[in-house]
What we know:
Helix content is 54%, strand content 0%.
Amino acid sequence: MRRMTIAETAKLAGLQYNTVYNLYYDKTAGIDFSTLDKLCFALDCTPNDLLKYTPKN
């Protein structure tokens, strides 16, 4: 898989640059299912490839 910039990823997924930037740098509390769907479709992956569960201990 080739590395992409945030701008390339946002354009490919049809999302705003700030949305992808905030997700990449973990500056958001959550993600909308529609955003997750667009990213998975654009990157040909599953949510499991993008998300990591971290318990709040």
